[in-house]
UniProtKB/TrEMBL annotation:
It comes from the Bacteria. The keyword Hydrolase applies. This is Gluconolactonase. Its EC number is 3.1.1.17. The keyword Hydrolase applies. Residues 38-301 form the SMP-30/Gluconolactonase/LRE-like region domain. SUPFAM superfamilies: Calcium-dependent phosphotriesterase (SSF63829). It holds the Pfam family SGL. One of its GO terms (molecular function) is gluconolactonase activity. It comes from Deinococcus radiopugnans ATCC 19172. Keywords: Hydrolase. InterPro entries: 6-blade_b-propeller_TolB-like, SGL, SMP-30/CGR1_Lactonase.
Length: 316
């Protein structure tokens, strides 16, 4: 489906004046394409392409300026979040394969890790690559309990954890334990803080998930490890409402830009909510990209959006 001829009207909520210098004067929210079922996991490639997930559609899509949107991979085995490693390869979270996967230079997809202590992972959801090359990812059970987002199956892990995987040694360890439903994650610019979203509220009321979490937790990181990685000891960085912190990224100044049900919400490093860029659909995830890293690409329910800002993302 082609993008509409007109773009959505741009509304900015300025809750704190610290947001103003982060925004580009006159920037307009652009709808680049529409036609997905639930957009997630955008990643910006060095050649200007954006690859993102249509999870229920069991496919990856690719957008590039001046080209028609194409299917990048189908079936995608319900891939969700993505990141680039230091060799420019796409690292993906596969609900269907219950694994972290990587696209090799020849185009093949290989499984990097799919088990922890002899048991299959739940359904990896979102991923970041640290400066040392380690791969950090969340592992909620969405791909097991939502038939439209995976192949189902029995949960083998006793909990929903955040993991650190070293692709050089094969070492996998749980760095954050005891979260109800870990989802989006990102590092602060100096990687001294790990932010992890808990989106248990998406299934609140169920007997096994009575919590209604829609917040982002913050954990201190020292020497590549989380200090006291129990969720009960974490600090709540921000509550996101309406909607959930499904996916988020951090800019070079440490501000956190997160998905929500109403737009891209922006939080200062001290947790103050700075404001929001309204988006007419619930957002699954977002990423920084563009030639200078100052373009926000937003994967929402049915559409891919673009919004120019005045600050560079640390993951661009």
């Amino acid at each position: 489906m082609d993008a509409p001829a007109t773009n959505p009207e741009t509304h900015i909520e300025m809750a704190d004046e610290r947001l103003r210098p982060l925004l580009k004067a006159g920037a307009v929210l652009e709808r680049l394409w529409t036609g997905s079922t639930w957009g997630e996991g955008p990643v910006y490639l060095p050649d200007g392409r954006v690859v993102w997930s249509d999870i229920p559609g069991n496919r990856l899509l690719v957008w590039q300026e001046g080209h028609e949107v194409q299917e990048y991979l189908k079936p995608s085995h319900f891939q969700n979040g993505h990141a680039l490693d230091h060799q420019g390869r796409i690292v993906g979270c596969s609900h269907g394969e219950r694994a972290i996967v990587r696209q090799e230079q020849d185009g093949r997809w290989t499984v990097l890790v799919g088990e922890y202590r002899g048991r299959r992972l739940n359904s990896p959801n979102d991923v970041v690559v640290a400066r040392d090359g380690s791969i950090w990812f969340t592992d909620p059970p969405y791909g097991l309990i939502q038939p439209q987002e995976g192949y189902g199956g029995t949960q083998e892990q006793p909990g929903q954890e955040v993991y650190r995987f070293d692709p050089e040694t094969g070492d996998l360890r749980a760095v954050v334990r005891g979260m109800v439903c870990p989802n989006g994650l990102a590092f602060s610019p100096d990687e001294s803080v790990l932010y992890v979203g808990d989106t248990a509220g998406t299934h609140s009321g169920e007997t096994h998930w009575p919590e209604r979490h829609h917040h982002i937790l913050a954990y201190d990181v020292v020497d590549g490890d989380v200090v006291d990685g129990e969720a009960a000891h974490a600090r709540v960085f921000a509550e996101v409402s309406p909607g959930f912190p499904d996916g988020f990224r951090v800019d070079v100044h440490g501000n956190l830009w997160t998905s929500s049900g109403s737009g891209v919400q922006v939080f200062a490093p001290d947790g103050t909510r700075l404001g929001e860029i309204a988006v007419p659909e619930a957002i699954g995830n977002l990423t920084f990209g563009g030639p200078d890293g100052t373009t926000l690409f937003i994967a929402a329910s049915t559409s891919l959006y673009r919004f120019e800002v005045n600050v560079r993302g640390v993951t661009a």
